[in-house]
Specification:
Helix content: 40-55%
Number of strands: 8
EC number: 3.5.4.4
Mean pLDDT: 97
CATH class: Alpha Beta
CATH superfamily: Metal-dependent hydrolases
Keywords: Hydrolase, Metal-binding, Zinc
Order of helices and strands: EHHHEHEHEHEHEHEHHEHHH
Domain Adenosine deaminase: 5-324
Strand order of the largest sheet: 1-2-3-4-5-6-7-8
Organism: Actibacterium atlanticum
Bound molecules: adenine, zinc ion
Number of helices: 13
Structural class: alpha/beta
GO molecular function: deaminase activity; hydrolase activity, acting on carbon-nitrogen (but not peptide) bonds, in cyclic amidines; metal ion binding
Largest sheet: 8 strands, parallel
Radius of gyration: 18 Å
Distance between the termini: 17 Å
CATH architecture: Alpha-Beta Barrel
Strand content: 5-15%
Amino acid sequence: MKSLPKVELHTHLEGAAPPAFIRGLAQEKGMDISGVFAPDGGYAFKDFWHFLKVYEAATSTLTTPEDYHRLTLAVLEESAAHGVIYTESFMSPDFCGGRDLSAWREYLHAIQEAAAQAEAQMGIILRAVVTCVRHFGPEKARETALCAAETAGDFITGFGMGGDEQSGKQGDFAWAFDCAREAGLRLTTHAGEWGGPQSIRDALDDLRVERIGHGVRAIEDDALVDHLAEREIVLEVCPGSNIALGLYPDWQDHPIERLRERGVKVTISTDDPPFFHTTMTREYDRLADAFGWNEDSFRDFNIVAAHAAFCDTETRARVLKKLEQTDD
Ligand code: ADE
Ligand code: ZN
């Protein structure tokens, strides 16, 4: 499955940072973040809320645009090695310059330079979804949305929200999402991961998003599953992340297959791959084992993902062509 071309819609840029990369940065800067690592060198956390703390501690080592340039290259190299041809990554002005617009522009410039280099060298295409962090609150989300609106374009194509789903309500962030929509950005938000089905309804009604990050807990509400299928809402499903964080005990218990059978548009992503000891290849291998999916099934998922990608039509056509090239 490693060489199969893949489209990935849901990763977090800092969450994809290899632990050795973060450890190296901490050493260079004399920062002590030893609590972040397990004895085997991977990231250590005990549950989702602890994961968010460890994520933010690891991210605190990324302090300059140059750090983000190196990070982006490292992340894209790893994705390309697993056959990813197009990837959308969540990026946060919160972590890149503390929501200051001119600082954010500098970080963005560095990230885009790295993306252009990776595309020229490895063919992988990166697009960015600016995310606000839910537990930082609606006020900070407004500032984040203003940064996103000012830099919307060919590279920044979407706006979304991650963080602690149990902090506040989706609707508290409506101003930020309205601002992003008015700037022409496409919208997604994390819902139905740690929040139940109502969090997905709130995301659709109050934030008017067209994709949902995770969304898997829709399976607990039959009417909602039908609604998602009818409205062709695309779910950015990250099965390995859900299993690593204890949302489901095992791959066979994961609802992705039941959602697909019921006609919901599902796609496959890694979320924060090194944190969850996963890669796109591993996701595909485990899903093939659990549900008997084969290369044709995965091609179908990738075509759904390409159509749901927040990129322009020319980019989408290039991606679809690459997916078709494997047909013979
Ligand atoms: N930030 C990084 N990974 C996340 C996840 N899986 N859910 C919510 N926020 C996140
Ligand atoms: Zn996520």
